């Protein structure tokens, strides 16, 4: 494996893989490649995939590994400019107006200039990401964009195209150093093509069994090897079942942690039934696996693991 970069962003894909691995994030080479290109080309990266596959974690890892501040915009239905970008400190502005009136100041242009100055501007995540300090641009995470509406998507076009935002009363704020932008979507709805065109794109899939086992080894070091293999095999098999919500990597880690806390060294039907709430989050899914489906999966993985020694 390549050595870590001495400073700044990685200069090769191997360095990017090493950087991610140093923070216990096991990425595929294709993901490392698109991350490398996003940083080199100063383009936003749009990550799409099922919930729980590690999209948000990528931004956190980059922030920690590159020693950049992480600014997170958590998206939700109804998100507007005041919550995401900026708003004015109206109480302070009103106080300034009254004090000016009391002092007999009648220059309206001067007063308007004063109250719409940076002194009264409240910076929300988008504006914070564009006004980095110390020459080190932050990692800007726009998380779960698919939860917002199309109007907010349209607003983001200026931000993602030119790394700038226009405030009518104040002017255009442009980033001196473009932030590292990571946009995530769980694909609950399609994001407009106009926004995707401004980004590099990558589909983040569930890890294969080898990768997921290594994740458990790193994240749950107290889990013994035999149990780790059973947990990963069980979860991998579970994802092939038609469930309402497949378990993500975070749930696999939680399950392995829970089993370790219970001092289990192997899976059995009773233990699986008692701990499914750490792995599955919908009652219909839990009820299905607690029945014959769960025992069938356990029998299959036990036979497969015995076959490979």
Return residue spans where pLDDT drops below 50 for at least 5 consecutive residues.
Answer: 1-7
Order of strands, widest sheet = 2-5-8-1-9
Order of helices and strands: HHEHEHEHHEHEHEEEHEHHHHH
Supply Rg: 24 Å
In terms of quaternary structure, what is this?
single chain
Write up what this structure looks like.
49% of the residues lie in helices and 12% in strands. It is built from 14 helices and nine strands. The strands form three sheets. Strands 2-5-8-1-9 form a five-stranded parallel sheet. A two-stranded antiparallel ribbon has the order 3-4. α10 packs across α11.
Q: Which descriptors apply to this entry?
A:
single chain, 309 residues, alpha/beta, five-stranded parallel β-sheet, two-stranded antiparallel sheet, 49% helix, elongated, disordered N terminus
In short:
The chain has helices at 13-22, 29-41, 55-65, 81-84, 90-102, 108-115, 125-130, 150-162, 193-196, 209-219, 225-238, 249-261, 269-275, 283-307; strands spanning 45-48, 70-74, 86-88, 121-123, 139-143, 164-167, 171-174, 180-185, 200-203. With 309 residues, the chain is an alpha/beta fold.
